[in-house]
Amino acid sequence: MSSISLQGLRHVYANGHVGLSDVDLDVHDGEFLALLGPSGSGKTTLLRSIAGFVQPEAGTLRFGGKPVSGPGVWIPPEKRNLGMVFQDHAIWPHWSVARNVGYPLRLAGVARREAEVRVRSVLGLVGLDGLGDRAPAALSGGQRQRVALARAIAGAPQALLLDEALSSLDEPLRARLRLDLKALTSEQGLTSVHVTHDRAEALALADRVAVLRAGRIEQVGTPQDLVRHPASAFVASFVNDAVLLEGTWAEGCFEIAEGLSIPGARLEAGPCLGPDGLGQTALAVTAAVSPLDLVLHPHIGDGGSGRTRAGVVTSSLYGPHGFGVSADWEGRTLRAHVTGWAPRPGDRVVPEVLRARVFASQTAGTAASHPELVPA
Ligand code: ADP
Ligand code: MG
């Protein structure tokens, strides 16, 4: 069993920076989990805690149910049997590819013959068949990262830990290695934790994604969960590029400002609003609107658009599946995915929200001033 379980993991650096605060997380046996979050959110600290390079000051870490770090327990990194790949591949430039890949096997005392067979086999797995005699300098950046990956899996680790392992590569190499990494880990049934700040990469690769913010896990879920049912306004905006609109909930309607409101039937209450969801009381709330759920209609004349006021397109970027459009609407920036017509900067548009998820307001009128918003 190669599950990884973290309970109440906490780490504060000597300079007072919070690395992790009370992190609970279960990575299942054979699962590919992505750790996603902005810079400084604690992704590397979490990964290094699993690896044993950071010793958390509280909490328990278990591999396959067995504690490796916790009260009275400390298994050092070299005894944890993990494979690691970093952004900077850190392979020895003066060693051949095969020697680099075989290094963990030599350390483990694996017989030479057996090690050679294993090295050939993992070079095949990462798409470097026949390149064992090459010097790293004679490889492309993507190939060098494959060497690092081969070295990480050579010793049949119980889990693979990747810290921004693809971030230094350019497209299309990166997309290629992403696909291969996904195929390799699922064929080998490797439990993997992949740190990235790139949401598209996390959503594309992972069975589940854990979103970190300021040392805490804000949400763990499948990519579909995070996109369709974000647990907070932060997750909606970080994972799905949602526009966050402040407004007031009253009388069955969400009023953003005069001239832009969202009917209650198009709203979903986020979990922080508690079991009763949106009650009848007037509340300051934040609506998160995905660019896919915001329609920008071309503004025709003055009377055609009802009472919704028009906004102005500020940028419009063509893509194979439509235009990525930003528009200024009464001082707010709206983002929408537009198909069916070609907006240009300066065009006047009328926004329509098809669906929004509503959270307790992050600014004025937070949960503190609305005790009814605090989850039971
Ligand atoms: P991420 O990988 O998500 O960018 P990190 O885990 O590196 O985040 O950092 C989390 C927090 O801990 C940040 O505030 C960062 O400044 C701090 N931090 C990270 N490493 C150290 C360190 N070695 N010493 C002091 N503070 C650190
Ligand atoms: Mg990091």
From TrEMBL:
<keyword id="KW-0547">Nucleotide-binding</keyword>
<protein>
    <recommendedName>
        <fullName>ABC-type quaternary amine transporter</fullName>
        <ecNumber>7.6.2.9</ecNumber>
    </recommendedName>
</protein>
<feature type="domain" description="ABC transporter">
    <location>
        <begin position="4"/>
        <end position="239"/>
    </location>
</feature>
<dbReference type="Pfam" id="PF00005">
    <property type="entry name" value="ABC_tran"/>
</dbReference>
<dbReference type="InterPro" id="IPR050093">
    <property type="entry name" value="ABC_SmlMolc_Importer"/>
</dbReference>
<keyword id="KW-0813">Transport</keyword>
<dbReference type="InterPro" id="IPR003439">
    <property type="entry name" value="ABC_transporter-like_ATP-bd"/>
</dbReference>
<dbReference type="InterPro" id="IPR017871">
    <property type="entry name" value="ABC_transporter-like_CS"/>
</dbReference>
<dbReference type="GO" id="GO:0015418">
    <property type="term" value="F:ABC-type quaternary ammonium compound transporting activity"/>
</dbReference>
<dbReference type="GO" id="GO:0016887">
    <property type="term" value="F:ATP hydrolysis activity"/>
</dbReference>
<dbReference type="GO" id="GO:0005524">
    <property type="term" value="F:ATP binding"/>
</dbReference>
<keyword id="KW-0067">ATP-binding</keyword>
<dbReference type="InterPro" id="IPR027417">
    <property type="entry name" value="P-loop_NTPase"/>
</dbReference>
<dbReference type="InterPro" id="IPR003593">
    <property type="entry name" value="AAA+_ATPase"/>
</dbReference>
